[in-house]
Amino acid sequence: MADISEAIGKLAPFRQEHKFFAKVFQALRIAVNNEMEFLKEMLLQSLEVLDHEGRLVVITYHSLEDRLVKNFMRTGNFEGEEKKDFYGNPVTPFRLITKKGIIPGEEEISGNNRVRSARLRIAEKI
Length: 126
Fold this sequence. Notes:
Blueprint: H1 2-8, H2 17-32, H3 35-49, E1 55-60, H4 63-75, E2 83-84, E3 90-91, E4 94-96, H5 106-111, E5 119-125
């Protein structure tokens, strides 16, 4: 870890080194652990395991995850491309319970600042 920090340390903006390194190491963790692919796999499996009116509840911690989950819950695919039936009505496997997602309140953040970027999304299978 020290080798990576030393190698890219000069790229960090002045007085924003902490944020810079946090983003770099988060990106490395996401890539090494293949987190986005596992998230996609879990979301696709939810279509198979949820019964009618079953609820899918997901907490995301960064915008890449949130975009995937939001698109999937709204349209049933990861690109966010809305599909329509013969009559022009949107076809989606879910009904959104939370339109924008629920974010933590000030009290929750003050007790645990790691939740500040969390977003809770809920959808019900149609």
